[in-house]
Amino acid sequence: MDISVVIPLLNEEESLPELTSWIKRVMDHNHYSYEIILIDDGSSDNSWEVIEKLHHENPDIKGIKFRRNYGKSAALHVGFSDAQGNVVITMDADLQDSPEEIPELFKMITEEKYDLVSGWKKKRYDPVLSKNIPSKFYNWIARRSSGIRIHDFNCGLKAYRKQLVKSIEVYGEMHRYIPIIAKWAGFKKIGEKVVVHQERKYGETKFGFERFIRGPLDLLSVIFIAKFSKRPMHFFGLLGTFVFIIGFCAAAWLGIAKLIAVSNNIPAPKVVESPYFFLSLVAMIIGTQLFMAGFLAELFSRNSSDRNKYLVDKKVI
């Protein structure tokens, strides 16, 4: 199979018939073998009924329904697991991503040998203050921290080599930073393509102001997990040891100073009366706790089972 199109959705019953029909026209025109995987992320409207109807009309359209809302990352993870195409393309269900971009994205993966191609919505139809400016800020931070020179990390329209989507884990809210996860998984040929961004035709955006908090926190999580998920002791253990040594040296200095004063008959206050004693004691306790956290995290990382288990309610395949 040439292409799998993975589409997460939440309450998009109005746009699904138009979107799938548009994708089918593009695929038939270019003679691609394909599948469309629609992941219903706990919709409260009639999205699933629409998916079932579309599947009966076209068996190349497949559906997965979550029992509740898990988020876009969970939907992508399940979609990636089921995808059979040599090239996997993701897009949003709100008709703001154009299926006309699919042939060029497919060529960049198959002919130019990219591992991942991310869309760049150079001209956006989103609100400037609530979406465009925060997006530019987060993308700048992501570029600086990852070294990946693309402009729009969170663009829903992306193309992937099949091997890549079968090799990475996407969970939590990590869909924003899949290029970074891919790079640290060893897929380093990451490209970018300017894509058309269209105005939303139906419904309303599903993302609120919480993304202002989630964005930088997700980036910190990605960086930490990518560098230390397999060796958390290297982070917590090193930091804990450093803090413990500072506290121990401070306590030792207070004790030695007291002994020197006593041996020279110099009046000196009790060690426990010095605020530095309690600061050093707190530092040793925190250092010990950090070290133990690293030890426990190391045990967990070596013995944990698959964390990505979501309650799939129904499928049409």
Can you describe what's shown?
The protein is α/β, with parallel strands linked by helices and 317 residues long. The protein has 2 domains: 3-229, Spore Coat Polysaccharide Biosynthesis Protein SpsA, Chain A; 233-303. It has 10 helices and 8 strands. An 8-stranded mixed beta sheet has the order 7-5-6-4-1-2-3-8, with helices on both faces. Strand 1 (3-9), helix 1 and strand 2 form a beta-alpha-beta unit. Helix 5 (128-146) packs parallel to helix 8 and helix 9 (233-263) packs antiparallel against helix 10. The mean pLDDT is 86.
Write the layout of secondary structure elements.
Blueprint: E1 3-9, H1 16-30, E2 34-40, H2 47-57, E3 61-66, H3 72-82, E4 87-90, H4 102-110, E5 116-120, H5 128-146, E6 158-161, H6 162-165, H7 178-184, E7 190-194, H8 211-228, H9 233-263, H10 275-303, E8 312-316
Parallel strand pairs: 1-2, 1-4, 2-3, 5-7
Antiparallel strand pairs: 3-8, 4-6, 5-6
List keywords for this structure.
single chain; 317 residues; alpha/beta; Spore Coat Polysaccharide Biosynthesis Protein SpsA, Chain A; 49% helix
Query: What's the CATH architecture of the largest domain?
Result: Alpha-Beta Complex
Mind summarizing the main beta sheet?
A: 8 strands, mixed
Per the CATH scheme, the topology name of the largest domain is Spore Coat Polysaccharide Biosynthesis Protein SpsA, Chain A
Overall geometric form: elongated
Gap between N and C termini: 15 Å
Uncertain stretches of 5 or more adjacent residues: none
Question: Mind telling me the C-alpha Rg?
Answer: 26 Å
Coarse structural class: alpha/beta
Number of distinct beta strands: 8
Q: What is the tally of helical segments? A: 10
